[in-house]
Design goal:
This protein has 87 residues and is α+β, with helices and mostly antiparallel strands. The protein has a single domain, classed as Vaccinia Virus protein VP39 (Rossmann fold). Helix content is 25%, strand content 15%. Helix 2 links the parallel strand 1 and strand 2. The longest helix has 12 residues. The protein is globular.
Length: 87
């Protein structure tokens, strides 16, 4: 996903205003995000039922630590579809 985002950023001439980081939130340092805030967070936080692997928790931590007021997160919501099991 990050490599495709980099290609799109470059193709549209936004290399000087958009930085794409491909990293686990736990591995980011102050050098990666010197201003401590970002405009957009794009992630794949979906574990089993949103709870497995604590991925959703990490996504929320990233929001709290780095997202500017009014910033956007993608995805911003998830829906469940529960189908009763019958034999």
């Amino acid at each position: 996903m990050a490599e495709n985002a980099r290609i799109l950023v470059k193709a549209n001439g936004f290399e000087k205003v958009v930085t794409v980081l491909c990293s686990r939130i736990e591995d980011l340092t102050d050098e990666d995000i010197p201003e401590k805030q970002v405009d957009v967070i794009v992630s794949e936080p979906l574990g089993t039922f949103l709870l497995n692997e604590r991925m959703l928790e990490t996504y929320v931590i990233a929001r709290n630590m780095f997202l500017k007021p009014g910033g956007r997160m993608f995805p911003a919501k998830a829906d469940f579809c529960v189908v009763p099991f019958t034999d």
